[in-house]
C-alpha cells in the first residue's frame, strides 16, 4: 500500500488573485490567520471591520453595516464591568470611554465601506452555526462580552436561516460591486466546548448552507479549508495543544493549497520573493557589526529596490529603510 492518506484534489480557479486585487476578509479567527498572511505578503487587505466574528448572521450584519455606512451612537453600546461594548463587535473595540469605542467602530466602518466599493474579492470564513440570543429582546449577538450566561439563550441556526441571511447580503454586495467574487470557507477550528457531536452538527449546517449559496450565485466559490484539515491531513499531529486549532504545519499546508488554487505562477513567485525579504528582516545575527552581515544587508536593500522597480504598485519603503538603517548602525 503506497498511500496512507487521502489527498484532497482542488481544481485551480479560472480567475486569479494578484497584488492588485483588493481583498476584504471577514469572519472567524481563521479569517484573521489567512488575512494576516495576505497582508504580510503586501496584498491590499482589509481585515474584519467588526473584529473577529464567528456566526453567519453576525457576519451578514457586519457587511450590512458597510453597505449602509452605518454610524453607531452611544445608544448602540452598553456598559459592563467598567467597559463600553457593542454586541456587534469583538472585544478589541471595547474601552473604558464610550466615545473612544464609537470612534474606533465608526472609523472602521467608514474605512471598510470605502474599501468594499473597490474590492475584487470577499473572503468569508464561517466559524459556527451556534449563536447566543439575548433573552431581553431576542437579538442574536456577535459577542457576549462576558455578561452572565443566564441573559442569553443558546441555539443552532438552521440551514435556511443561514442561506437567507448571507444570500440577501451577497445580493446587495454584488449590486453595489458587480465585479466582486466571494470565497466562502468553513473554519477548520473545532468548537470542542460544544462537544464533538454538536460541533459536527454545527459545521454540517454551515457546509450545507455554503453549498446552497455556491449553487445560487455564479460568483460565489467554496474553498475547502475545513476538509483539508479534517479529511486530508486527518491527524492530531496537525493540531495545536488544545486539539482544536490547526497548528503551524497545518496552516502552512492550507495556505499552500489556497495559493495553488487562486494564485498564478507569477504571483506565487512574487510572494516567495517578498517572504524572503520579510524573513531577512526578522533575522537576528550573532555578529551584527561584521562585514559579512553588512554585505547581507546591502544585498537585501538591493533586492528591495529591484522589487520596487518591478512592482511600482507595492510599497517596500519599510523594508528598505530597515536594511539601510541597520547598515548605518
Q: What report would you give on this structure?
A:
With 329 residues, the protein is α/β, with parallel strands linked by helices. The protein has two domains: 23-263, SGNH hydrolase (Rossmann fold, 3-Layer(aba) Sandwich), CATH 3.40.50; 265-329, no CATH class. It is 48% helix and 12% strand. It has ten helices and ten strands. A five-stranded parallel β-sheet has the order 2-1-5-9-10, sandwiched between helices. Helix 4 (159-176) packs across helix 5 (196-216) and helix 8 (265-282) runs antiparallel to helix 9. The protein is globular. The termini are far apart. The mean pLDDT is 94.
Q: Give the integer mean of the pLDDT values.
A: 94
Tell me the number of structural domains. Answer: 2
CATH structural architecture of the largest domain: 3-Layer(aba) Sandwich
How many H/I helical runs?
10
Shape: globular
Amino- and carboxy-terminal Cα gap: 58 Å
Give the CATH level 1 class of the largest domain. Answer: Alpha Beta
Question: Radius of gyration over alpha carbons?
Answer: 22 Å
Unreliable stretches: none
Amino acid at each position: 500500500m503506497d498511500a496512507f492518506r487521502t489527498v484532497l484534489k482542488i481544481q485551480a480557479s479560472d480567475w486569479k488573485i494578484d497584488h492588485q486585487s483588493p481583498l476584504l476578509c471577514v469572519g472567524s479567527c481563521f479569517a484573521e490567520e489567512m488575512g494576516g498572511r495576505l497582508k504580510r505578503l503586501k496584498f491590499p487587505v482589509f481585515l474584519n471591520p467588526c473584529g473577529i466574528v464567528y456566526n453567519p448572521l453576525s457576519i451578514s450584519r457586519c457587511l450590512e453595516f458597510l453597505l449602509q455606512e452605518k454610524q453607531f451612537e452611544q445608544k448602540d453600546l452598553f456598559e459592563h464591568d467598567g467597559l463600553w461594548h457593542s454586541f456587534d463587535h469583538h472585544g478589541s473595540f471595547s474601552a473604558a470611554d464610550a466615545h473612544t469605542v464609537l470612534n474606533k467602530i465608526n472609523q472602521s466602518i467608514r474605512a471598510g465601506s470605502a474599501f468594499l466599493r473597490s474590492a475584487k474579492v470577499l473572503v468569508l470564513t464561517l466559524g459556527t452555526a451556534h449563536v447566543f440570543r439575548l433573552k431581553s429582546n431576542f437579538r442574536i449577538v456577535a459577542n457576549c462580552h462576558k455578561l452572565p450566561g443566564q441573559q442569553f439563550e443558546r441555539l443552532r441556526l438552521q440551514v435556511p436561516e443561514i442561506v437567507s441571511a448571507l444570500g440577501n447580503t451577497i445580493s446587495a454586495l454584488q449590486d453595489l460591486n458587480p465585479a466582486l467574487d466571494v470565497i466562502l470557507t468553513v473554519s477548520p477550528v473545532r468548537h470542542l466546548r460544544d462537544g464533538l457531536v454538536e460541533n459536527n452538527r454545527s459545521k454540517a449546517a454551515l457546509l450545507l448552507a455554503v453549498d446552497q449559496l455556491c449553487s445560487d450565485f455564479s460568483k460565489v466559490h467554496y474553498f475547502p479549508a475545513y476538509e483539508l484539515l479534517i479529511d486530508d491531513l486527518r491527524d492530531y499531529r496537525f493540531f495545536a495543544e488544545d486539539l482544536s486549532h490547526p497548528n503551524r504545519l497545518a496552516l502552512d499546508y492550507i495556505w499552500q493549497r489556497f495559493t495553488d488554487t487562486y494564485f498564478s505562477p507569477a504571483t506565487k513567485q512574487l510572494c516567495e520573493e517578498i517572504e524572503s525579504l520579510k524573513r531577512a528582516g526578522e533575522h537576528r545575527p550573532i555578529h551584527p557589526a561584521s562585514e559579512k552581515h553588512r554585505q547581507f544587508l546591502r544585498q537585501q536593500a538591493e533586492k528591495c529596490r529591484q522589487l520596487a522597480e518591478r512592482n511600482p504598485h507595492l510599497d517596500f519603503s519599510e523594508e528598505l529603510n530597515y536594511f539601510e538603517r541597520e547598515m548605518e548602525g
